[in-house]
């Protein structure tokens, strides 16, 4: 599980420095004062595709590129200096001029990716990664970009690195892991949850499932350089003929049966179910005849107390819409169960309903 991020979680990292451990770099010339042109170091935001696709001939040499002082004695390049100071236009210019420069190391083994992570320039970090920067590149002391991001306490930066495959279990040559370097409770909790997801969770762990409070298509995309739900596992194999993020409407000339979004097993996520008794009553069939005619439709049972617990916490059903006449009056430890039949298109047709999909942005 990757925890949801809020503005309170994302640290404003521009004012923070590098990890206090000494890095064996050669002395560098003093950092020049930033120019006062309109093109100042950009704040964290996602890079638009039209910006990344401009040709080198279409992009003129930024004026800052002529003014930045590069310490060539330390093996530094213009790309590294621009990534450290936050000049996105210069970074784009350098990459379009020589894309192989993206993984250049200075005399201490640091790359432009290290520089962007240590200063929290998420938009520059995104550009470097899109141009093939090595997300797990190591300096001479074993420092990786993920270590700089954790020390800088920038949750958005570490989020982006992990989305590109950064390994949070790698340690420096002195034995410092990302978890050991984390200082804030928010960063520690984020890394702990991420490592738990990688290593697997035990059944009954409350973190085995995610909590969603609304649809991702209805929320703003600002503030994050990557969309966690853009391409979830399995989406390319299932439902390719159905538009992503479509709303589904069930149409019927009869009152719709109540449908419940329930998790019937810890090994599978929540899905939609009908009460088996409601379906049998609508179809005027007995349980034996229904199962004989439709053996492929999934039927399961759920403890009655658990059913009422999940229904009571539903955000979709108001108290008036919850199943009437089914108050949970069973004594503690009761073995009473509720039979459920899974929500399927075939079952909807049997119930006399039609299904239509409507794009959310139409």
TrEMBL record:
Residues 244-360 form the BCL-6 corepressor PCGF1 binding domain. PROSITE patterns: ANK_REP_REGION, ANK_REPEAT. One of its GO terms (cellular component) is nucleus. InterPro entries: Ankyrin_rpt (IPR002110), Ankyrin_rpt-contain_sf (IPR036770), BCOR-like (IPR047144), PUFD (IPR032365), PUFD_som_sf (IPR038227). Residues 1-66, 313-338 are annotated as: Disordered. It comes from Castor canadensis. This is BCL-6 corepressor-like protein 1. Coiled coil: none annotated. The gene is LOC109687397. Gene3D superfamilies: Ankyrin repeat-containing domain (1.25.40.20), BCL-6 corepressor, PCGF1 binding domain (3.10.260.40). Keywords: ANK repeat, Chromatin regulator, Isopeptide bond, Nucleus, Phosphoprotein, Repeat, Repressor, Transcription, Transcription regulation, Ubl conjugation.
């Amino acid at each position: 599980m990757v925890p949801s991020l809020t503005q309170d979680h994302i640290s404003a990292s521009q004012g923070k420095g590098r990890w206090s451990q000494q890095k064996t770099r050669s002395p560098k010339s003093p950092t020049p004062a930033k120019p006062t042109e309109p093109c100042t170091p950009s704040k964290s935001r996602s890079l638009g595709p039209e910006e990344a696709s401009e040709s080198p001939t279409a992009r003129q040499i930024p004026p800052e590129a002529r003014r930045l002082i590069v310490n060539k004695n330390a093996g530094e390049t213009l790309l590294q200096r621009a990534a450290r100071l936050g000049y996105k236009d210069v970074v784009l210019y350098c990459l379009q001029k020589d894309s192989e420069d993206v993984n250049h190391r200075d005399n201490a083994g640091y790359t432009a990716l290290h520089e962007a992570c240590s200063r929290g320039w998420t938009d520059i970090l995104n550009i470097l990664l899109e141009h093939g920067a090595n997300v797990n590149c190591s300096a001479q002391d074993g420092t990786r970009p993920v270590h700089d991001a954790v020390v800088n306490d920038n949750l958005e930066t570490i989020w982006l690195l992990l989305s590109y495959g950064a390994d949070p279990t790698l340690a420096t040559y002195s034995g410092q892991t990302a978890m050991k370097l984390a200082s804030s409770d928010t960063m520690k909790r984020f890394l702990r949850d991420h490592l738990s997801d990688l290593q697997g969770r035990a059944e009954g762990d409350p973190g085995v499932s995610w909590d969603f409070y609304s649809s991702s298509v209805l929320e703003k995309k600002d503030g994050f350089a990557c969309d966690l739900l853009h391409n979830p596992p399995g989406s390319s194999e299932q439902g390719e003929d159905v538009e992503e993020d479509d709303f589904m409407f069930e149409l019927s000339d009869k009152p719709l049966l109540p449908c419940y979004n329930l998790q019937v097993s810890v090994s599978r996520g929540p899905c939609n179910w009908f009460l088996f008794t409601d379906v049998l009553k609508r179809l005027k069939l007995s349980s034996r005849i229904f199962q004989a005619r439709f053996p492929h439709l999934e039927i399961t049972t759920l403890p009655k107390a658990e059913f009422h617990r999940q229904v009571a916490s539903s955000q979709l059903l108001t108290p008036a819409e919850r199943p009437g006449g089914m108050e949970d009056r069973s004594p503690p430890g009761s073995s009473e169960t509720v039979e459920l039949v899974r929500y399927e298109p075939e079952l909807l047709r049997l119930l006399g309903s039609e299904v239509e999909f409507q794009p959310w942005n139409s």
